[in-house]
Specification:
The chain is α+β, with helices and mostly antiparallel strands and 99 residues long. The chain is 16% helix and 37% strand. The strands form three sheets. It has a two-stranded antiparallel ribbon. Strands 2-5 form a two-stranded antiparallel ribbon. It has a two-stranded antiparallel ribbon with strand order 3-4.
Length: 99
């Protein structure tokens, strides 16, 4: 995923992501219960979470959902982030800004 910007402190970081949910079926309607989504660094280290609200999709309908990952999502129960993870994110951001 590209376009993720990191502020000076991970506790103040915010990521905005857009996801498209689509029901391609022409007969059935679809309901999706609310769910919690996590944002990971390097595939296995959670750094933030967010809650996606329940939705209903009619036949052949789609819905673009904006998901925001920041401190106050998930009832303020953000995952603990190890120091080496934070340093790795900072290094990626430095390299990105260099080019």
């Amino acid at each position: 995923m590209s376009g993720l910007n990191l502020s000076c402190f991970l506790t103040e970081a915010r990521w905005d992501i857009r996801m498209l949910f689509a029901n391609r079926n022409s007969v059935l309607e679809m309901s999706i219960h609310s769910f919690e989504s996590s944002l990971y660094y390097n595939y296995s280290n959670p750094i933030s979470c967010s809650v996606v609200e329940a939705m209903h999709l009619g036949r052949k309908k789609q819905r673009l959902v904006e998901i925001q990952f920041y401190r106050y999502q998930c009832r303020e129960e953000q995952p603990y982030v190890d120091g080496w993870v934070l340093e790795g994110i900072r290094n990626i951001n430095r390299i990105k800004n260099y080019y």
